[in-house]
């Protein structure tokens, strides 16, 4: 049997003993993802899917649950549609996570989801999983599928250090080196880091107001608006003006005049 590849990811992983589920919807989601995003984004989403499936039986809070794997796979495959290269899919005023959630929900509905078991609750769960995929402090306390989506995506960044301490070079115990190699060989990481910087800095440039209160803003502060330092000071000035603490405390002080 052929090994998984970006164009045929549904074959079994011999070492990791996982298989990305193929359904008409997950197949269509992969095609849609491939059509509208960069190759490095496609591979990131596929790696994240594989890592999520690998982690589920190893995490006690999820191992015994009957999870909605079609929802999981669809959510992870489409979680970064907010990075789409097709600009007509994107908004000018929403965080990229919300854009992704909106695109994914619309896609499932267009695929006939409402007639195929995708009721309002399931569609909302898909939306939540994508909208919250960068917000672990919320995602991990919602439905299990939302938490697993977050962890699978996080695992593509932490890799073999998932559950360990990357700062000290301490490997985790959730993903072995050989399993990691198997997954990144199937779905190579080539170009992802550079593309990530460019995408995030592009968001800081094209819709900065959506980045000031998220981790995306850190890219603008560090790399400017072109990924190479351009307009870094201008972005920092905008970011400083948008800080919430001065506005919150200042508004309390101003309103105090009407409380006497």
UniProtKB/TrEMBL annotation:
Residues 42-136 form the HD domain. It comes from the Eukaryota. InterPro entries: HD/PDEase_dom, HD_domain. Pfam families: HD. Coiled coil: none annotated. This is HD domain-containing protein. It comes from Podospora aff. communis PSN243.
């Amino acid at each position: 049997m052929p090994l998984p590849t970006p164009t045929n990811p549904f074959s079994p992983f011999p070492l990791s003993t996982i298989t990305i589920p193929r359904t008409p919807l997950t197949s269509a989601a992969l095609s849609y993802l491939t059509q509208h995003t960069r190759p490095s984004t496609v591979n990131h989403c596929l790696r994240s899917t594989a890592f999520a499936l690998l982690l589920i039986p190893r995490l006690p809070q999820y191992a015994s649950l009957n999870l909605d794997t079609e929802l999981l796979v669809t959510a992870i495959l489409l979680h970064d549609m907010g990075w789409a290269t097709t600009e007509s899919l994107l908004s000018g005023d929403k965080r990229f996570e919300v854009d992704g959630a909106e695109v994914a929900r619309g896609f499932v509905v267009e695929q006939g989801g409402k007639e195929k078991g995708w009721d309002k609750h399931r569609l909302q769960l898909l939306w939540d999983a994508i909208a919250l995929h960068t917000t672990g402090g919320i995602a991990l306390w919602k439905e299990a599928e939302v938490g697993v989506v977050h962890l699978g995506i996080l695992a593509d960044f932490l890799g073999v250090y998932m559950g360990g301490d990357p700062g000290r070079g301490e490997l985790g115990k959730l993903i072995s080196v050989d399993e990691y190699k198997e997954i990144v060989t199937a779905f190579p990481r080539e170009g992802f880091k550079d593309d990530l910087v460019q995408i995030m800095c592009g968001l800081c440039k094209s819709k900065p107001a959506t980045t000031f209160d998220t981790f995306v803003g850190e890219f603008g502060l560090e790399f400017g608006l072109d990924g190479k330092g351009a307009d870094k000071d201008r972005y920092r000035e905008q970011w400083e003006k948008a800080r919430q603490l001065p506005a919150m405390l200042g508004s309390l002080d101003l309103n105090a005049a009407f409380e006497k």
